[in-house]
Write the structure tokens for this entry.
Amino acid sequence: MTWKAEDVSAQRLKFAIRASSGREQMKALCEEFEISRPTGYRWLQRYRQCERLEQLAEKSRRPLRSPTRTAAEKEQRVIALRQQYPDWGAGKLAELLQREHLSIPRITVHRILLRHGLVPEGDRHRAATQRFEREAPNQLWQMDFKGMPHTRPGCLPLVVLDDHSRYLLGLFETTSTQAAPVQQHLTSIFQRDGLPEAMLMDHGTPWWNMQSSSGWTWLTVWLMKQGIRVYLSGYRHPQTQGKIERCNRSLEAAMSKRPKPAEENWQDWLERYRHEHNHVRPHQALEMQLPASRWRPSARRFQAPDQPWDYSDPSQVRKVRENGGVCLAGRSYFISRALWESRCSCNF
């Protein structure tokens, strides 16, 4: 029996008329209509008791009373928070409600949002099941540019994130990937929060040079001279920087659903978002803790201007020439032009 061929009520009426005739076996008739025998007997009983054919229609299974339904004022508070933070999910909203001493389970918050059409189809996805992080703050910082769509030109945010705490150390308005502004922004972070042990970036400018065999740029060398280990993610493997990619996705959602007022500049908007990310927004990966509660400044202090390379008992020191090479025993060896641009020497 193909149920899509005609109206369901008409199918039920046909079944009830044939079943009430007594000329067919109930088992065979139910198999033909692809229903269970309890359902068939229920339809037959309803047909014999009904006064109008409309009574054969499917009855709502919704209970007449819902004594455990969330109170209207609590439901309105959930809706108000969702409107204030349209890019936040049920778990984060439930945490904010808990701070207000309104204990509403996450699943209940989610159902309220669904009931009021506040969960777009694109936001209905399963959370990540595996996460990896460094053991303490400042062991690793991740850095990346947040690409901007064509609908929002003029701002290319530079994002700097602590791997352990998800603390946003910096969120800066930039218009290009030039190295000089990046160095300036990093200097402001280093002076305020100290130095990380290591930093992780992708193979993009200005910290990677595709035309150099080593890939180093003067910005990379500048970081290394501060005693920072530099790690680069795998080619075409954004999962290596999963935390900052997730941060960028949240930033994009906020930009789309809470756009910048026309009279406000981008840096003010980004700084307000950074404060929210660190001090207001609970993070599921942190068991709903705040990044600020898990982060602390680094004990490693920034030294400016750049300190010279420390060669402990060097056997030979050679200056890197303008072409990126050094001369040793009458032979020239290419190292990296980034070292010459940083006025560095090489120890052999």
